[in-house]
Amino acid sequence: MLSRFLLKGVEKQLTPRNASFTGVNGQGTPRHPVNLERNDVGSAYHPRESNRVERLPARDSDHSIQFRLAYRALLLVSRGASERDAVQRAAALDPRSIGVKREALALVLGTVGEQDVIDLLVRNVHHEEKMGMNARCLFRLTAYAMLRLGARGRTRRIEHSLRTIAPIELLPRLEFFLGTLPAFDPTQLLHGLRDSERVALETHHPIWWVNYCFRAFGRTDAVELLSSRTRPRYLRVNPLKNRGRTTLPKELGVLAERLTKVPSTPGVYTVAGSLSDFAGFFSSGSFQMQDLASFLAVKSGAPVPGENVLDLCAAPGAKTAAIAQLMKNRGSIVSVDYSRRRMNSWRREVQRLGVKIADPVISDASWLGLRDSFDLVMIDPPCTGTGVFDRNPRMKWHLSPKSVERYSTLQRSFLDSAASLVEKEGRILYCTCSLTLEENEDVVSRFLKSHLEFETRPILEQYGSPGLRGMSDCRRFFPHRDHAAGYFIARLQRTN
Q1: Looking at the structure, do residues 361 and 419 belong to the same domain, yes or no?
Q2: How many CA atoms within 13 Å lie on the side-chain side of 174?
Q3: For residue 487, which of 442, 434, 447 has the smallest C-alpha distance?
Q4: Alpha helices, DSSP H only, in 317-419?
Q5: φ, ψ of residue 245 in degrees (nearest 5)
Q6: Same domain? 206 vs 296
Q7: Domain that residue 211 falls in
Q8: Residues 6+ apart with CB under 8 A from 242
Q9: Residue 433 annotated in active site
Q10: What 3-state DSSP class applies to 376?
């Protein structure tokens, strides 16, 4: 909410360290390639600046490292990287930043998530200046940190960190920007706006998406959906590494107190506090992080031991692993994804989790060329991700109604391609982490009209909400209602 922009602090947050990026123009078009291993942006990434950070007291140095890491990551996000990947890539260049990745990621997610209001503020202060991406990312980070975190009495520390990481040529503009922030009144931005425009700024979403949600879900539900910010983190016990059990391993000890069991879903828990305390259990494969809705999608496909399963768009491997666990590592899984890089992540994940029945295939899911038939085809296709904006806020600023149309066309091609690969009594499990009707009910409805040999079957009736447009056999999950990712799930059974 806009009103919280000034007033609400964040508990433990945020800051980065040394980097080196080349200039980018105001539209985000690179003038030169980004190179994290060179010092191309002036003193922010100059060795003398690193020395200046080294001379700071330990706590101030950590704070500045945190902000520098966030700054470097924001520059990578401006080039198209995801927030988490950007933080990982930036942190890999500096061992000192490893311990502040979580705080830096929170800074990045907050800055990108509220980018609409932040950019209005930046333009208001520097409205006559052409601004490269280095300056834009610095001022975005400054606005978020000062207006969100400064309310907790950290103003001087934050200002010190920002001055430490700023390129020398940007310091005068930074000082001017810092001087104007105390006079900023966010309520001025709402003056004279229409309802949807006001809700867009208050909830930090593009206007087209606000209007879409108003039409699809009604204003009351839409505002609650758009206002939802956080959902639980879910951890699942991996029975393949726990003697076939879904109970917590005894070795967990006092850490078990940090886990809360999810009713009616054995082996699934919500996690409180830092995940780093569970690092050993993740490394050994005893635990797997997977959103509740994502796991329930796999469960509703009802894979059983001995079946042949095709997992389309399988990387990075969470669903493949969940299928193998439900099948008790008996049967076979063919996992398909178009990206060699993503399939490398898939290999690491299934190996960590003890999956022994899955084979990878690098291929376009809409042009498979497979001759086999399968008991279950799992399709989790590329989508707009409108159900997971909280974890990927950059996506909402790059999507448009045309994006929805493009994805729905692609999704229909995946479903059509899969139909001929389903055994006589087999089924398709179709799911997305999107909330749009075009990518969900409309895709399934068109498929059923052109494939009369399939019909929907009821699933997960104790979870979520029925599908829309009369498709009550399908299931929807909404973040504000179900404390899970926004999801759509449909089971399509082949009939005689």
Answers
A1: yes
A2: 25
A3: 434
A4: 318-326, 340-352, 401-419
A5: -100, 155
A6: no
A7: 192-227
A8: 249, 286
A9: yes
A10: strand
| Burial environment of residue 203 by CB neighbours within 10 A (0 to 12, 13 to 18, 19 or more) | buried
Q: Which residues are CB-contacts of 237 (< 8 A; sequence separation ≥ 6)?
A: 245, 246, 247, 248, 249, 267, 268, 269, 286, 287
Whether residue 176 is found in the same domain as residue 201: no
CATH number at 467 reads 3.40.50.150
**Alpha carbon distance 480, 224 (integer Å):** 6
Say yes or no: 142 and 45 in one domain: yes
Kindly name the residue from 137, 383, 431, 433 that is annotated as catalytic. Answer: 433
User: How many CB atoms lie under 10 A from the CB of residue 82?
Assistant: 16
Kindly give the pairing relationship between strand 332-337 and strand 268-271: unpaired
Each residue's pLDDT, cut to its tens digit, for the chain (496 residues) gives 454 443 333 333 333 333 322 223 333 333 333 333 322 222 222 323 333 332 333 344 678 999 999 999 999 999 999 999 999 999 999 888 888 999 999 999 999 999 999 999 998 888 766 789 999 999 999 999 998 886 556 788 999 999 999 999 999 999 999 998 888 887 788 888 999 999 999 999 999 999 999 999 999 999 999 998 889 999 999 999 999 999 999 999 999 999 999 998 999 999 998 888 999 999 999 999 999 999 999 999 999 999 999 999 999 999 999 999 999 999 999 999 998 989 999 999 999 999 999 999 998 877 777 778 999 999 999 999 999 999 999 999 999 999 999 999 999 999 999 999 999 999 999 999 999 999 999 999 999 999 999 999 999 999 999 999 999 999 999 999 999 999 999 999 999 7
Query: How far is 390 from 400, CA to CA, in rounded Å?
Result: 18
The pair of three-digit structure tokens given for residue 28, joined into one six-digit string: 């985000």
With residue 215 as reference, give the H or E element that holds it: helix 207-217
Same domain, yes or no: 208 and 129? no
Torsional sign, CA 64, 66, 71, 72: positive
Are the C-beta atoms of 107 and 56 separated by less than 8 Å?
A: no
Number of domains in the chain: 4
The verdict on 489 and 453 lying in the same domain is: yes
For 157, the 3-state DSSP assignment is helix
Order of all β-strands in the sheet with 287-289: 259-261, 268-271, 233-237, 287-289
Same domain (yes/no): 363, 409: yes
Task: Give the orientation angle of helix 101-113 with respect to helix 83-91, to 10 degrees.
Answer: 140
Tokens standing for 276?
Answer: 């780093």
353: left (phi over 0), alpha (psi -120 to 50) or beta: alpha
Q: Are residues 352 and 411 in the same domain?
A: yes
CA-wise closest residue to 421 among 310, 334, 331: 310
